[in-house]
């Protein structure tokens, strides 16, 4: 029997204003199971049909009913990111305090919704996400190629987002505070496979607090559309782009710090030392000529010093992970900005 008494765990969850976004694409055979398993403390659900060829949205409208269930339709396929952002917009419009994103293919254990929501409700995080790499027992069923690919992608994401304590960046089981979601709606976030990783970059630019929630992976009869081999190189490009943008935005525009000087000096010294070595090997008359001690020192010393500067800057960046949630300030700001409009 569900405990509905005041002070019960269910009552606490029901009072958190939790909404759920479900992107729908080729998940018609699973969507009924997902909706039927949804806890009754969820205040509302926004299911987004991302131009699904199986017409999952139409199926939900005609066959499945639930209080506060909204179905949104895309005229063109926008990818999971586009569907999630459409869901965020609807949830924000409905006054959601916490928004949890759940896939429609029944890969996500809904029992983990509460652990995702509670850190946000208690003011410990702005955004939470699943981490399937928290223990060996969680990853023993994961295919090796996914395990290896996620490890590589996780490191690239750490560099580009600045969240050095976060792992498993492509995990789509996430929750976000409504005020933070409203701010994210103003950002140009990638809509397809890079969505989750790009989301972390934009959260980092907002200085939002992100926390991992340990959970096991589920692999049933679903087919993944994400090929690790196919996305590694594109992701490497996108992460490199975001890394440069993050350095310019955070270390040159918003905060010119010691780490900025160390990075610029480190890059300049490494480039100078490497150019000396390359110039020597490219212009020497005899391929057997040995570089003089002066050339060796002129090349090696700047490189070694530059690497030390870069390692020091990296250490500064690792210690500079956001630790103070921003959603209280954003909620207060929104209250004062829109209070007059709401009173009219």
Rg to the nearest angstrom?
Answer: 24 Å
Q: Which bin fits the share of residues in helices?
A: 40-55%
Task: Round the mean pLDDT to the nearest integer and report it.
Answer: 88
Order of helices and strands: HEHEHEHEHEHHEHHEHHHH
Which residue ranges are poorly predicted, with pLDDT under 50 across at least 5 consecutive positions?
none
Please tell me about this protein's structure.
By secondary structure, the chain is of the alpha/beta class. The chain has helices at residues 9-14, 28-36, 56-63, 79-93, 113-121, 136-139, 144-161, 178-184, 195-206, 228-254, 258-283, 293-318, 327-343, and strands at residues 18-24, 44-49, 69-73, 98-101, 127-131, 174-177, 210-214. It has a seven-stranded mixed sheet, with helices on both faces. Strand 2 (44-49), helix 3 and strand 3 (69-73) form a beta-alpha-beta unit. It is elongated and about 80 Å long. The chain starts with 8 loop residues before the first helix and ends with a helix. The relative contact order is 0.11.
Explain briefly what this protein structure is.
This protein has about 350 residues and is α/β, with parallel strands linked by helices. It is about 55% helix and about 10% strand.
Secondary structure layout:
Elements: H1 9-14, E1 18-24, H2 28-36, E2 44-49, H3 56-63, E3 69-73, H4 79-93, E4 98-101, H5 113-121, E5 127-131, H6 136-139, H7 144-161, E6 174-177, H8 178-184, H9 195-206, E7 210-214, H10 228-254, H11 258-283, H12 293-318, H13 327-343
Parallel strand pairs: 1-2, 1-4, 2-3, 5-7
Antiparallel strand pairs: 4-6, 5-6
């Amino acid at each position: 029997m569900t405990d509905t008494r005041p002070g019960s765990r269910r009552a606490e969850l029901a009072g958190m204003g939790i909404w759920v976004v479900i992107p729908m694409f080729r998940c018609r055979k699973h969507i009924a199971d997902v909706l039927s398993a949804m806890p009754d403390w969820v205040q509302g659900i926004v299911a987004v049909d991302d131009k699904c060829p199986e017409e999952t949205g139409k199926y939900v409208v005609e066959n499945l009913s639930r209080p506060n269930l909204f179905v949104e339709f895309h005229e063109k396929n926008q990818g999971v990111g586009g569907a999630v952002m459409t869901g965020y917009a609807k949830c924000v419009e409905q006054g959601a305090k916490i928004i949890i994103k759940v896939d429609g293919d029944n890969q996500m254990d809904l029992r983990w919704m509460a652990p995702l929501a509670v850190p946000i409700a208690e003011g410990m995080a702005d955004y939470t996400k699943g981490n399937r790499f928290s223990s060996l027992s969680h990853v023993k069923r994961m295919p090796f190629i996914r395990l290896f690919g996620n490890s590589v992608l996780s490191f690239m994401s750490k560099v580009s987002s600045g969240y050095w304590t976060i792992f498993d960046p492509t995990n789509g089981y996430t929750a976000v505070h409504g005020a933070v979601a409203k701010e994210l709606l103003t950002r140009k976030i990638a809509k397809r496979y890079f969505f989750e990783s790009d989301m972390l970059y934009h959260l980092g630019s907002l200085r939002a607090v992100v926390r991992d929630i340990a959970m096991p992976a589920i692999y049933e009869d679903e087919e993944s559309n994400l090929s690790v081999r196919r996305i590694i190189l594109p992701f490497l490009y996108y992460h490199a782009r975001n890394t440069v943008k993050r350095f310019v935005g955070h270390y040159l525009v918003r905060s010119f710090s010691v780490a900025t000087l160390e990075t610029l000096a480190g890059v300049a010294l490494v480039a100078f030392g490497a150019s000396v070595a390359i110039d020597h090997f490219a212009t020497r008359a005899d391929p057997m000529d040995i570089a003089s001690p002066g050339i060796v020192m002129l090349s090696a010393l700047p490189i070694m010093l530059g690497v030390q500067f870069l390692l020091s800057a990296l250490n500064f960046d690792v210690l500079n992970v956001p630790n103070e949630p921003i959603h209280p300030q954003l909620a207060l700001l929104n209250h004062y900005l829109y209070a007059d409009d709401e009173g009219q």
